[in-house]
Amino acid sequence: MSIVSNIMEHNQQFVEQKKYEKYLTDKFPEKKVAILTCMDTRLVELLPKALNLRNGDAKIIKNAGAILTQPFGSAMRSILIAIHEMGVKEVLVIGHHGCGMTQLDSASLVEKFKANGISETVIETLENSGIRMDRFLRGFDRPEEGVKHSIDMIRRHPLVPSFIPVHGFVMDPTTGKLELICDGYAAMEAKKAGATE
């Protein structure tokens, strides 16, 4: 049986047995928080449990490495919509140890594209159109570095209000233990103090 057949069979039973009822909520995050985190499979259930989040508590935006690669990409758009349309008052960036984006080799990944049938012409066309693979596929040396990069992009974004604190964490993907990397409240206070001096 294929994965799609398994999913459809399970889904039919899920709906018929009304198992969805315990997840009912609305689209506005109860805790008024948006979380940018990694798509790593280890975090699917671990992250919400480790943060005491239930369905409906937060907007969770996932991508590879919790990295914002461009200020006007889809992940940043999701953060902006969460703030301006969904009532989000704080943003958390959560990376994790053992991330696949750590020391990602963009040249090696391009070779895998080719091995999977993507032609050299397509890659050259993209590069000639301004899509630099080394930037598009950028990883980081340490997860803290990736978290700080994304925090900086969010804080500096011209469409993010100055009153939104942006916090950064690195999570242990085995235990769920969080390490605070950047305290958004402290950063806002420091910015205020610098502005008043």
TrEMBL record:
Q: Name one GO molecular function term.
A: zinc ion binding
InterPro entries tied to this protein: Carbonic_anhydrase, Carbonic_anhydrase_sf
Q: Where does Zn(2+) bind?
A: 38, 40, 96, 99
Return the SUPFAM superfamilies for the record. beta-carbonic anhydrase, cab
EC assignment: the record states: 4.2.1.1
Question: Cofactors per UniProt?
Answer: Zn(2+)
What does the entry comment about cofactor binding?
Binds 1 zinc ion per subunit.
- Which SMART domains does the annotation name? Pro_CA
Query: What is the top EC class of this enzyme, as a single word?
Result: lyase
Q: Which Pfam families match?
A: Pro_CA (PF00484)
What are the alphabetically sorted keywords of the record? Metal-binding, Zinc
What is this enzyme's catalytic activity, as reactions? Answer: hydrogencarbonate + H(+) = CO2 + H2O
- Asked if the keyword Metal-binding belongs to this entry, the reply reads yes
**UniProt family annotation:** Belongs to the beta-class carbonic anhydrase family.
Put simply, this protein is called: carbonic anhydrase
Q: What is the lineage of its organism?
A: Bacteria, Bacillati, Bacillota, Bacilli, Bacillales
